[in-house]
## 1
Amino acid sequence: QVQLVESGGGLVQPGGSLRLSCAVSGIIFSSAAMGWYRRAPGKERELVAIIGTGGSTNYRDSVKGRFTISRDNAKNAVYLQMNSLKPEDAAVYYCSAHTTYDIYWGQGTQVTVSS
């Protein structure tokens, strides 16, 4: 019954912005670390950002200063604000939840960066 549902993907031009959302149900959200991963065509899935239960964050180097991960425990939601998007950011973005026992994944949302 655990569900993670991403939204907010779409087509943007280089330099544009998108805000991804992930709605979570079926877990104690406040006890789960939340992450965003992405997979580009022909590439392996890679971690983009993660936010811990206490609000600590980590980002891969290529998105530092451009992306911001946040969470709203009252809404059971995690967000990824993406600014100054580059073509290399184009990928399917996946939300993840890490609980005591398992890791859960959303089905992904497509981000396309093209002019």
Note: The mean pLDDT is 97.
## 2
Amino acid sequence: QVQLVESGGGLVQPGGSLRLSCAASRSIPSIRAMGWYRQAPGKQRELVATITTITTDSNTNYAESVKGRFTISRDNAKTTVYLQMNNLKPEDTAVYYCNIHSFFAHYWGQGTQVTVSS
């Protein structure tokens, strides 16, 4: 079974930056899109960013709360998705999950904790 391995989370001060990575344990065929979600304690999981992978030209979408601060990118050859997070705020604190959507199924990462605090 394919596994998505996440890394890059941690504790940072407000205004700091982190880069999250998510790599599949093996190749996934027919990928439609990749994305990042997050879930804070007591809150619903929310979509943070997505990037389409159907063609060589990608399209990105971001939650309003992270626009201008976060950047999603991908490496198709390695089946990897990244999330560059800049100017982090305390409200960004959550467990971040990567997701890969293929023609056949959705795959989820195990989650990585991001904590933004002074």
Note: The two ends are 40 Å apart (CA to CA).
## 3
Amino acid sequence: QVQLVESGGDLVQAGGSLRLSCAASVTMFRLYAMGWYRQAPGKQRELVATITGAGSTNYADFVKGRFTISRDNAKNTVYLQMNSLKPEDTGVYYCNARLSPQLPDYWGQGTQVTVSS
């Protein structure tokens, strides 16, 4: 029911920046929340940042001050601006969407972010 199209993953040196994009097939205000998660090899998938349909945001402690989640309502797109990237930020980044707390989440295909030292 919800289609998510991601872009922006790349190889970047430590200290560099990337912006990830996730275009949704529904308006942000129809969604309970959207978010970004990441998973490194051998590790559990972890929350990076979330944004509600009304625009409230939440961040994991390890990205506060470096990453920013935002949205463009006209484009039905959520962004993750990543600055001051570190090698430990390396992983597959997934876009997530919820229609309601009662329904299963929708996930994007994932995009690889690699930060070299």
Note: The chain has a mean pLDDT of 94.
## 4
Amino acid sequence: QVQLVESGGGLVQAGGSLRLSCAGSGRTLSNYAVGWFRQTPGKEREFVAAITRYGGDTYYADSVKGRFTISGDNAKAMVYLQMNSLKPEDTARYYCAADEFRVPVVPGIGSWGQGTQVTVSS
């Protein structure tokens, strides 16, 4: 079971940008498909974006299309979520999930990190 570490969250004003990072502890994510999810207290974890194992395909929730971009670095040692034009409704704790065989597009697929908090103020 891969250990994941998310980073890059913080407080930002509406319209601003943040870049989240997801990394495997002690390993790269080159053999994993990776997804980003977000969750607020009392609500179900929501799919945000995903990238396939080899980085050839990406998937986005309708709510973030055109604003968020998921990508990996050269060797997919890290997976990023670039978030632009942030809205208060984007406020949530963001988690990444990684799986060797399935693309994490629904909650419950893959191993999860501890998350990083994103707060967008009006």
Note: The mean pLDDT is 92.
